[in-house]
Amino acid sequence: MSNFLCDMKEGDEMHCQGPFGDFILRPPMRDTIFVATGTGIAPFRSMLRWLLSSGPESMPDERGRPSSINVQAQHQLYLIFGNRTEKDIYYHDEFLRLAQEHPNFHYLPTLSRGGTDWRGLRGYVQEHVPAIAQGRTDMHAYICGLDKMVKANSDLLKSLGWDRKSIRYEKYD
Fold this sequence. Notes:
CATH architecture: 3-Layer(aba) Sandwich
Number of strands: 8
């Protein structure tokens, strides 16, 4: 696929289908916390861009029937994105812009090895999840990253009284 993409010229089109995986947004739409580290941000970038697009969107309900949702102001969306250093943060400017444009989107980058100039959160993502999730069992959580981080956050949410069906995750190691 890489060679195919590299050989494409500006303006070339390609057709795709999907997604076919199981790591997708689940109705009904609720306040949601997205937790990612490193390249685990990839699925959340497309999810958040879709959720924050203008106007009502169609999302299938539990039975696959279309249901209209609009998350522009109704639902709070939190992205806790962990990296080692500031240079490791993918799509940082894009997420900052989305947070400025959408008051219901809260971008919370955290660095485990941030330099002295870093003014954002420090530490690991699971250290910052309770501030959002504690007492909020009416939310969804989507977690993507290495197995150890996914397990730590999933276990943490369960210990806070969350139903396992409200926690979706994707591990890639």
